[in-house]
Amino acid sequence: MNLKNFIYFTLLAVFITSCTVSHNVPTSQVPNNFINPNITSSYVDQNGNFFPNQWKTKYGTPPKNATRKEYSLMKIATESGFEADLTKFETTQLKGFADRVKNKKRIIIFVHGINNDYMASLTNYNKARTYMDLNLQKDEVVNFYWDGLKTSSIFGAAKVWISATTNSQLAGEFGLRRILNSIKNKEIYIISHSRGASVVLSALKNPVLSSTEKRIAEKFHHLDIVEDQELKENGNKIYSIMLAPAIGEDDFKDDQGVFKVFTPQLKTIHSTINKTDFVLGKGKTGILSKRLTSTDFGFDPETQQKIASQYNLCDATDFTGQKSHDFKDYINNPKFKEILKKFKLAK
Question: pLDDT tens, 60-108?
């Protein structure tokens, strides 16, 4: 790298680092709750731990400028001596969920992407439900929220992308997976947007974390990466619908570079392809386009087909022509309704 490029990238890194990015934390003091007749709200932090009732009292408000090291439920609970309280709450909450869905037929789980807050995600979840034919007694809807961070700055968005990549993996491995493990013998439909696809894949199979991220998780947040619970074979049928999936080939591979073998419970991965989604193309020729985590599964047909050739469960709908990456625009696209029809979810 020549001196000019070195100076440029150094200044760019400093500028991105200085941009304010905040954690996506709940607005409610009872964020993990059940709303009758058929909605479950599940809210996890950057490491996949579930926010307990009255969480601000013990855990406080996170710093305004979020980093991977300084704030998490398990970090504070462990270092303050009430880890058992957090674990007890999570166990009780998950058991309550298991009991709640025991007699349900279908579970529909919504998973948002990065740079979202609670209200924006809830609005999109509610809008998607208006297109669905849901039985209040037989179907349960899970609104899943995770710490994909948030910012209003365009350069802050780059920082969000870099940091939230790991957050999405841990939210899936330690958060969404525990929800899936609480469900038995059901049809499960997971509708994700953008980097929410990483949350889904990480719930199904352990993600590959860098040595640095493993060290941060274990040293700063007291997570047991080695002894985490695997996805249980609970006799479910899992259907993954990925809207604008911001993932790439590496997300489907293990630490040896070999394509992962997913649970036989996974029946379908139905994704969208959109060659005009500016975000998935990362500006196509943008300065960061090759330096951020790959998003080609939702952008490049060749990548989608290469991955699909490894599995007999991938299908896709072409959304090319839609320029927006926003969740709401994917939901409001008539092609989303067509996808719902394929899975017998549409009105």
Answer: 999 888 888 889 999 999 999 999 999 999 999 999 999 999 999 999 9
Specify if 240 maps to a domain: yes
Q: Domain holding 168: CATH number?
A: 3.40.50.1820
What is the per-residue burial (b if ≥16 Cβ within 10 Å, else e) of 79-116?
eeeebeebeebbeebbeebeeebeebebbbbbbbbbbb
CA distances from 97 to 10, 234, 305 (A): 48, 15, 37
Domain count, the chain: 1
Domain that holds residue 76: 21-342
Q: Characterize 231-249 residue by residue with b for buried, 16 or more Cβ atoms within 10 angstroms of its Cβ, and e for exposed.
A: bbebebebbbbbbbbbbbb
**Does 252 reside within a domain?**
yes
Q: What is the pTM of this model?
A: 0.92
Quick one: pLDDT at residue 170? Answer: 96
